[in-house]
Amino acid sequence: MKTNKFLKIVLGLMVTFAIVSCVQDDDYSVPSSMGNEENTALNNLLATGTEVSMAELKQMYLTEPDPGDNAAVLIETNIYVKGYVSSSDKTGNFFKEFFIQDSPSNPTIAIKVILNEVDTYNQFNFGREVYVSLKDLYVGEERIENGVVTIGGGTETDQYGTTVTSLGTIQTNSHVFRSTVTEEIVPLNLTFSQINASHVGLFVQVDNAEFADNLIGKRYFDPFQDFDTSRTLQSCEGFSYSTFQLETSSFASFRDELLPVKNGSIAAVVNKTYDGSGLVLALNTTDDVMFNNDRCTPLDINDFTVVAEEDFESAVNNTNLDFPGWTNFAEAGGWVWREKTFSGNGYTEFSTYNSGDAVNIAWLVTPGIDMSGLDNVFVNFEAAQHHLDSPDNTLEIFVSTDFDGSDVLGATWEPVSANLPSQANAWYEFVDSGLIDISAYSGTVYVAFKVTGSGTDTTLDGAYQIDNYKVLAN
């Protein structure tokens, strides 16, 4: 009897041990290393597969088999993509998905992975370096016209097209691998007006932000809504507020927290609404909302004076720009900025279309701004694009205090940030640059518009337009 009792105790202990042993370590803590099986699979992938960039992977979906048909693409070659996890479902604000971006800092692109698992943050934790073996997986959209390029394990088709479906558990284990590396994700610093569709999936930070005035006393989630609640964020940009939507899931653990009333920085993942109609921010955690400053007040335009301006209304259509005090210079290629008119509006444009030059780089430099006696000095302009096919076809803005009025390349030029048109903007849609603060400069300041393109590469032969340049000060 004693022996039987002893055996029961031993067997009970063995069962208990077996149950505990069957729980994966990553159910409770983030592993710094993986088991032999996952390490072996990753090493085999790196040894036999070919890495492709996220941009290349997106292009596969956008161009094959037929651009615009919304059909998911089956990957049939032994290729893989690498990224760093930018989203986390630890608080329940993401569900059975995570984004990976191409770099832990200064990222340029991200892709979503959908999988039939919850609490993925334990395995694919924020900042984790992840490799996805793409052979026999699909690249497409989770919902038609959502516009978020996604990696999935299968497809389903309805009257609207073919979309990707989640990776199954076996597919996840055999195709999605972690390295031992977890990087610090440095948020990409942007303004609300700078965020566009190219930033979907990226972890970004916006400074000088706050929730809209009418949301004081509200919580992240509206209990009268079923799935998601959008709350308006605002930021003082010049003479007005720019706004953006923060979307919170009904399953978020912070859903009932009060919205902070102060101003500060917010770091979140750029995402799209369910139907793809708009861009939103989605929090990983409210720890990334750091609103500790006084609320902001937009500048009052009545406090400012226009000290210089050019509306290009005297432009002579299709001639090289020749305005007094402006410098029009070709660094590479033979073409320079042109005077243009359309429907009674004058502006200046630089296009490389049919230039015949492999590289075109053109500068347009404003007349000098005498900073003597000026405070709170801002530059403002409007810019548009058309036929822009690549982010490498760039418009850049620079400031110089040692330009002599003629030797452009001999001057020291400092880049400044502005809200500029991109592929996400409609052709010929003029975008306000926002206020570019040049108050810290002294002496005579020059502003330069620099475009880089090509007359032989059709992906780089777009055009940029500038109008309504002005300098404001008080």
From TrEMBL:
It comes from the Bacteria. Keywords: Signal. Residues 1-25 form the signal peptide. Residues 50-289 form the DUF5689 domain. PROSITE patterns: PROKAR_LIPOPROTEIN (PS51257). The keyword Signal applies. Pfam families: DUF5689. This is DUF5689 domain-containing protein. It comes from Xanthomarina gelatinilytica. The lineage of its organism: Bacteria, Pseudomonadati, Bacteroidota, Flavobacteriia, Flavobacteriales.
